[in-house]
Amino acid sequence: MPYSADHKKKTRAKIVETARVLFNRHGFNGVSIDMVMQAAGLTRGGFYNHFKNKEDLFSEAVMSFLMGRGAVWRKDAGVDVTNLKPEMAFQMIDAYLSPEHLNDLDGQCPMIALPSDIARGGADAQKSLQVLLEAMVSLFQANMSAEKDETKQWAQSISALCVGGMVLSRALPDSDLARQIRLAAGQSAKEILRHASLHADQSGQAGNAQSC
Q1: How far apart are CA 53 and CA 148, in angstroms?
Q2: Would the pLDDT of 211 be above 70?
Q3: Mean pLDDT of 129-152
Q4: Alpha helices in the chain (DSSP H)
Q5: What does the pLDDT look like over 153-195, one tens digit per residue?
Q6: Is the pLDDT of residue 212 over 60?
Q7: What is the largest distance, in Å, between two alpha-carbon atoms of the chain?
Q8: DSSP assignment, residue 105?
C-alpha cells in the first residue's frame, strides 16, 4: 500500500531538517547521503524518492532555515514579523550577534555556518542563500520609514555587519577578540538604524513644514 502524500511530506521534512543540522556540524563535504538517512532513521534507497542528489538536498536544507529553525529563532528572540518597529530591528541585531546564537552550532543560520560551502556549491544553493539574505534585508528594511532606495542600502549594510561579524567570530580562536568583533558589528549596525530613524524624522518634519 503506497504511503500517503502527508507521510511523504513529513518524511521529506525530516530528511531536510536532519541534513540541515549535519551540514551545520560538518559542512557539505563532511556529510554523506548515508549519514543523513541513518541519522533520520531511514534507508538510503528512500532518499531518491525525495531528492535528485546531495546538492539538491543541500539547497533545500539551506532554504528550510527561513521558515523552519529560523522561525523558531525569531520567536525565541521576540521578533514579531507581523508587528515590525525600530525596536524589533535593534532586538534582532542583539539576538543575531549574541553568544547564544554563536554557540548554537546546530541551529545557526546557514549564512554563518555554511558560506564557503555555499560559495563552492551549485547555483541552487547560492540562490537559497540569496533568499535568506533578501529576507533578512527586508525584515530590517520594514522597520525604516525613510525613502525605499535608502532603506534598502542601509538594511543591506546592517545585514552584512550581522552576518560578517558572526562569521569572523565563529572562525577566531581568541574568544575575547571574537566577542569584540560581535560588539563592534552590533554597534555599527545600530548606528545605521539610528541614522535611518533620524533621517526619517527629519524628512517627516520637512514634509510637514512644506504642507503648512
Answers
A1: 40
A2: no
A3: 83
A4: 5-26, 33-39, 54-64, 69-76, 86-96, 99-103, 110-113, 115-120, 123-141, 148-171, 175-211
A5: 999 999 999 999 999 999 999 999 999 999 999 999 999 999 8
A6: no
A7: 75
A8: T
